[in-house]
Structure formats: C-alpha cells, structure tokens
Amino acid sequence: MLDIALIRNKTDWVKEQIAKLHDEGALERIDSIVALDAQRRETRTRVETAQAARNKLNRAMGKLRGNKTMPAEEKAYRARLAAAALGGEDYDRASRLMDGAEPAVNEEPADFGAAFDELIGQLRKMGDGIEKGFDQIDSIEAELQEHMLWLPNLPHSSVPVAESEEDNIPGPMQGTLREFDFEPKPHWELGPALDIIDFERGVKVAGSRYYTLKGWGARLQRALISFFLDMARENGYREVYVPYIVHSDMLVGAGQFPKFQDTVFGIADEDKYLLPTAEVAITNLHRDEIFEEADLPRQYVAHSPCFRSEKTSAGRDVRGIKRVHQFEKVEMFKFTTPETSYDELETITAQAEAICAALEIPYRRLEIVTGDLGFSATKKYDIEMWSPGCEEWLEVSSCSNTESFQARRAMLRYYPSGTRKTRYLHTLNGSGLATPRVMIAIMENYQRADGSIEIPAALRSYLGGAEIID
RNA sequence: GGAGAGGUGGCCGAGUGGUUUAAGGCGAUGGUCUUGAAAACCAUUGUACGGUUCUCCGUACCGCAGGUUCGAAUCCUGUCCUCUCCGCCA
Fold first, then answer.
1. SS3 A171
2. Which nucleotides of B are covered by protein (CB under 7 A)?
3. 3-state helix vs strand vs coil in chain A, percent to 5
4. Residue A212 CA, nucleotide B24 C1', distance (Å)
5. In sequence order, what DSSP letters do the residues of A184-226 get, joined into one string?
6. Separation of CA A409 and C1' B81 in angstroms?
7. What nucleotide is nearest A122 when CA is compared to C1'?
8. How far is the CA of A338 from the C1' of B64 (A)?
9. A124 three-class SS
C-alpha cells in the first residue's frame, strides 16, 4: 500500500510513476482517492467534534444522576434547563448545568420523570446524528481502502522505464556454456526415459500441469531443497517452517489480494488459501508487531510448496515441468530499515546467484524494467539459468525490494533508535531457489550422450555420494 | 468432532452500566540522592487517525464483529483464538 499523504501531496508525481507501470486501472483510481481522502478528513473532523461534546454530556449525565447530595428537586430542574440548552445547541452550558458547575435557579417546580425524559430525548437526537456520521465515515473509508489496495507499488528511480518483459535488461552470462558433442535433449524427454518424471500419472491424479517425480527425481528435488536451505543458513538466514495454508488477510498483507485472487487456490468453506509462495507466510510472521531498530535486519528462510492456479497463463509453456500448479521453493526474506534496503537487495540477489554458481550452471541476472515490475516491487532482479535442451533461459529466482508496500499492508513497523515514533520497515524477498526449474537446468546441462545425468558436485553429499543418475 | 473455562496496556492483574483519566503491581525510561552502584523516593508510560504546530487538543481501540442504552470493559448475539478434559489420529 502507498502512503496516502504522498498521494495527497504529490498527486501528479504519483500519477507519472504509475503511468510507467502501464496500469491504467490504477491510474484512474488516483482522483477518486484524493477526493475520498479530503471527504474523509472533513467528515471525521465534524463528527468527532460532535462526539467530543456528546461524551462530555454523557459524563455530566452520570454526575447528575449519581449525585447523592443533590436534592431530587434540583436534579429535575437542572435536567429541564439542560434539555432546553441542548435544544439551543448550547452543549457547554448543558454540560455545566448537569455536572453542577453552573448554579441553577429554580424558577418553577419540575416533574423529575418528565424532565429527565426530555433531557434523554435531546441526547438521543444528538446521538442519532453522530451515529449517521460514523456510518458515513465507515463507508468512505471502506471505499478509500478498496482503491488503495488496488494501487501497485511505485518504481524506484533507478528502474529502467520500458514497456514489457521483452525489454528487461540481461546482464552478462556467468559460468561457461557446455559444449555438447551430441544433440542435447529437453527434460521432457530425459525425465520419462530415466523414469524420474512421470507426466501421465501426475495428470491422472490431479489433472493437467501436475506431475510426479520418482526415484532419483524425487531424491534430487529433496537434495536441492536441503542444499538451498543450508546455503541460506550459512548466509545468516534463520530457517523457519510455516503454515502452507493462510488466512485471506495474509494475502492482502503480502500484496496478492485483492488483485490476484484468481491465481491462488482456496480452501472450501473457509476463508483460507494455499500458499502461492512462502513469502506470504513470512511477510505476515510479524504482522502488527513493532521492532526495535537493533532487531533489524531480521532474515528468514523457509522451504514450502507453492500452489498457483494461474488461470491467466493457460496455454503457455505446456510442455514439461516449467510452469506447473505445484512446485517447491526456498524463499529468503529480510525485514530491514529503509536506509539499508537497497544494499540488501544487492546482497540477496548476489546470494541467489551464488547458488547458481555453486551448481555450476550458466546463469544471468535480468534487470526488470517498469513494465514488468509487477505489483509489489519497487525494484526487481530475476536470475535465469540456461537450459540447452529446451533452449531457453529459465527464471529460477526473483529478488525484490517492496520498500514499505507490504509493511503498510501487514503493519510491520519499528522504532528507530532513540525514538518512540513508529516507522514502517522495508521488506525484501528472493528465491533461493525454485525447483523443478533448477532440476530442469540440471538435467539438461548435465545430460550425457547415453541419456544419463551427472549429479552436480555440490549435491553429491546430499545423495549418498552418488555421481550419476541412470 | 464433543464438553467446560477463559481472552483487559510491554507483562501480571482488579474492574456487574455513569458521579470526567482501566485500580494496583511488575518492567522500562527519565530524575533526586550517591564517589559509583544498589536501595529508596518522584515523574513518565501503547497504537492509529484527525485538528493544531514544535506543544497541545480531540476521536477510536479492554480478542474481533454486530446489538441494547442518553451512556458499555461491564448486558445480549455471533465469531475467532487459547487452555483443560474426552474422541480421533501422525
């Protein structure tokens, strides 16, 4: 979520930033937001002033009713005078009459019951108006909030401005391309031939875009997960195990909802959803909490399966296991101060790259342009591995700084050293890494002429020292 | 899944409809005292929004959401969570 004060004070600048993202729907919301914000503040001031008067009157009422030394007769005529003052909207005088601050002269005898009925009637009338005012505020704020939740994060000034993913800027390839003395095969041929990927039986059990790993396939994936977690732990991340099912609020907090509701799987009859990424659970781990600056940065790593329904991408990448509804990912996550978040983005990206390097697979870093930045990030790098079989670059990691975008949605704050004034912290996330795409890259880069696959040296200790899958 | 008991500030804990601040304690912070520390004493104490501007003022928040009432931490309804016991399971 963006800072409403920023939208209020620099409206045109915010519009320019959103224009770079090519999110026309969001752009249209800005004027509504500015209008609702003004309306909201004006209404709130008016209603709260009235409420302050009413609170004072109710307290004075208690004082009048509960006064044990005042004769009933005096109470009655004070009540009647106060009711008259309320009729003239002189709240201060009414309050003074009721709590005894203003002397009252008994002009004529008043009936106790009738006087209090009259007074209560005045107070009720006042209360009804205030209730209506609060209802009005609620509906304005709900509408404002809905608009706010649909606004994407704004790009950092260093992000190149361009149309789409076609324009993302690749960095130089790292590592060395393998020279094959045979035609390298794609993983959808290698996997079934070795009986380590079984497409048909995955489809039988769960439908299209589901798959089964068998034998060395399943073991290789498990080894990769352990290897990834160990790499992250050595880099100072605390390993956590999180729920794979979360409340819808958590998806709002991390930025998936409301806009991307159709990309996640829901639990029947419950307001809960399967994780599309462990990032959702980790982001919300410290929801509604306030850190001390000394506690930052806080770094976590978690492995989780990721479930994505992605109805929008039907028809793309249908072959193989590149784009599937269920995959495994190890996610690195940082809670940082605003001062350090961009340095930390470089760090987390370098850490993801180091994993690629350790596996000795050619990779490159992609600098993401504004048109492909996505909803939550201010700046993003993707890491891609080269797959010689399907002859394409495979995205195996995505590293983002969301600044305070998620922090505002999930109420993640900290006290800067020496102050008691809260401030939103910054959150960053980076895959480290995701499989089965890394498995694709391993299979295709490490394949041998006879169809067997060499196991990368870094993984052998996780597989009982084995060197070859055949 | 069934039954019962609970949910109050950073923590413990009082509070069965009002008589201007959620009592009291712990912790934390600041101060006095002290050579220093401890102890003692004094003061302060959360979050959000709004209005002011360098300081205040106001509103809301007693798990959450509704309701009753002139007025709700307190009464009513729903819901979530925790604990205990039973059942089931890994």
1. coil
2. 18-20, 46-51, 58-60, 66, 69-71
3. 50, 20, 35
4. 63
5. PPPHHHHHHHHTSEEHHHHHHHH-TT--EE-THHHHHHHHHHH
6. 22
7. B70
8. 32
9. helix
Instruction: Please name the nucleotide lying closest to A49, CA to C1'.
Output: B58
CB atoms under 10 Å from CB of A66, counted, come to 8
Which nucleotide is closest to A4, CA to C1'?
B49
Reported pTM: 0.92
CA A269 to C1' B66, in angstroms, rounded, equals 22
Tokens read off for A249: 């609020």
| ipTM confidence score | 0.86
pLDDT tens by residue, chain A, 470 residues: 999 999 999 999 999 999 999 999 999 999 999 999 999 999 999 999 899 899 989 888 888 888 777 888 888 888 988 998 888 888 888 888 888 878 877 667 778 888 889 899 999 988 888 999 999 999 999 999 999 999 999 999 999 999 999 999 999 999 999 999 999 999 999 999 999 999 999 999 999 899 999 999 999 999 999 999 999 999 999 999 999 999 999 999 999 999 999 999 998 888 899 999 999 999 999 998 888 888 889 999 999 999 999 776 666 777 888 999 999 999 999 999 999 999 999 999 999 999 999 999 999 999 999 999 999 999 999 999 999 999 999 999 999 999 999 999 999 999 888 777 889 999 999 999 999 999 999 999 999 999 999 999 999 999 999 999 98
- Span CA (A249) to C1' (B63), Å: 16
Distance CA A154, CA A403 (A): 10
| B90 C1' to A452 CA distance, Å | 38
Closest-lying nucleotide for A270 based on CA to C1'? B80
Checking each nucleotide's C1' against the CA of A55, the nearest proves to be B71
